[in-house]
Design a protein that fits this description.
The structure is a homodimer.
Chain A: E1 5-9, H1 14-26, E2 32-35, H2 44-50, H3 54-58, E3 61-63, H4 66-69, E4 75-79, E5 90-91, H5 93-98, E6 105-109, H6 118-121, E7 126-128, H7 140-161, H8 177-193, H9 203-216, H10 221-236
Parallel strand pairs in A: 1-2, 1-6, 2-3, 4-6, 4-7, 5-7
Chain lengths: 237, 237
């Protein structure tokens, strides 16, 4: 199994960043990316809380936007307690880790107060929702503990049996998010030029739905090149 | 399924007590007991960290010793990363919650720095060890999140199917820890009187082993009364 990358989106408290790093270390993960940390970077509170996981903090990569952080990722999972009216599969933690397989995957955690925006969710293939009691409120560190623990349970079992998880559905040759980003840039420009979005106020919602539709299909990189070609061919006549 | 009681033994940081309460609330538990909290009680840091779980903090019961906190408990599980040379079953979190069934059970978490003593472990039937990467260091709040999450997964499944978990091995009529404490008090006095412990320095270890041997059998309350009778009968002649 390929270890997922952890991406924290606009995290607010350094303590939570450190606690996530600690959970990562405890469950065998090392690759941390942070998008637009509120208090800048480096962050002393994050290092202090990380304790034995400080090397993960030191090696963390910082990005300005989520698409940049996702560039080389094939499958992205967002952990959120509140699935909006977005057409995405909703998975339990154990289901999500079971389908990661050998794809290059990322686990996304949103900012403490506000959670992930629809724009953030637009970049994700699936939503992970942790089963809880009513009125629960897991902070990002607690959510990370649960999801990474499920990953560790599965991957250590897979290692000890020396076999690929048979239920994995993710593909090794899946298109990366950078491939998708290029495709979406091209598509959006063509759609704008063709006056596809007739009512400007409705464009954001419509465009999210279009992107979701493509992301959901989980194309291989070859398929995405074919889609590029189709868009080009259609728009050139 | 009967919800387990959470027992924190000599916790040091109020923040950790609050974080455990929060995990309890998120995963449907409410009964918190605390043995000899380092910073006394009430504890402002615990309340602040608990947030929506403050009612659990306010309802927490404080005890001076672990046997007092365990008085009405039938089966006790200690969560520790470092099983010592103690003859106890070692379970994964999912295994431990599966055997709780309708017994009155308790989940024990030790102090942050030093962990549980052999004396503490002597009161437990089984040890729960969370699978982790090497050199892991889960704090008590993280450990609680994992174990309580497993409990919630199982109990919400059991509720939705409206059936008792079939793999449960714990008994409703199991002796409580208070029953055991009385029995041990009687037994120890008789053994002392009979010069059973020939070398005083070896008594603590020997006595732990004797207690473990009895606890492991998980007697019913009726069986424990029978044992009482046996000890009395043997020592009276």
């Amino acid at each position: 199994m390929n270890a997922p990358v952890i991406i924290l989106i606009r995290p607010q408290l350094g303590e939570n960043i450190g606690a996530v790093a600690r959970a990562m270390s405890n469950f065998g993960l090392s690759s941390l990316r942070i998008v637009a940390p509120r208090d800048g970077w480096p962050n002393e509170a994050a290092e202090a809380m990380a304790a034995h996981a400080a090397p993960i903090i030191h090696a963390a990569r910082i990005f300005e936007t989520l698409p940049e952080a996702l560039a080389d990722i094939q499958v992205a999972y967002a952990t959120t307690a509140r699935p909006r009216e977005v057409e995405k599969p909703v998975l339990a933690p154990s289901e999500a880790v079971a389908e990661m397989g050998n794809a290059k995957s990322a686990l996304l955690f949103g900012p403490e107060r506000t959670g992930l925006t629809n724009e953030d969710l637009g970049w994700c293939h699936s939503i992970i929702t942790i089963p809880t009691a009513e009125n629960a409120s897991l902070n990002i560190a607690q959510s990370a503990v649960v999801v990474l623990y499920e990953w560790w349970k599965l991957s250590s079992r897979a290692q000890s049996r020396d076999l690929k998880d048979p239920s994995s559905t993710a593909q090794d040759n899946g298109a990366t998010m950078q491939d998708y980003a290029h495709f979406f840039d091209q598509l959006e420009a063509k759609l704008d030029a063709g006056h596809f979005f007739k009512v400007p106020e409705k464009k954001p919602g419509m465009w999210l739905n279009v992107k979701n539709m493509f992301l959901r299909a989980r194309h291989t990189d070859q398929e995405l090149r074919t889609l590029h070609g189709i868009v080009r061919a259609l728009s050139e006549k």
